[in-house]
Write a structure and sequence with these properties.
Layout lengths: L1 H26 L7 H15 L6 H22 L7 H19 L5
Length: 108
């Protein structure tokens, strides 16, 4: 389960970076060259999703829980926004949901 969780975090980072760089270009007058690493990051995101042994729907459902945690950590670390207790509680619930789904892989 640790390997799956770490893979999900890498996947979430690839997706967030792939979306953040075009946002910088469009909203913060960044260079259009940001689109090149963004495209590579999004391609890596898709490839990482294919590395899981479960059915795609289960992978997407479980991935969502880790994405929530990663997005909130990005908000705190990169954007410098202080997270509320509700943010942390929601992240914990989402992460527990991922753990439950992954624990059931191969048991159905």
């Amino acid at each position: 389960m640790i390997k799956t969780t770490l893979l999900f975090f890498a996947t979430a980072l690839a997706e967030i970076i792939g979306c953040f760089l075009p946002w910088l270009w469009l909203k913060r007058s960044g260079s259009p060259l940001l689109l090149l690493p963004a495209a590579c990051s999004l391609a890596m995101f898709v490839w990482l999703l294919t590395l899981h042994p479960a059915a795609s729907g289960r992978v997407y459902a479980a991935y969502g829980g880790v994405y929530v945690v990663t997005a909130l950590l990005w908000l705190r670390i990169v954007d410098g926004v202080k997270l509320s207790a509700y943010d942390w509680m929601g992240a914990a619930v989402a992460f527990c949901g991922m753990l439950i789904i992954v624990a059931g892989w191969g048991r159905t």
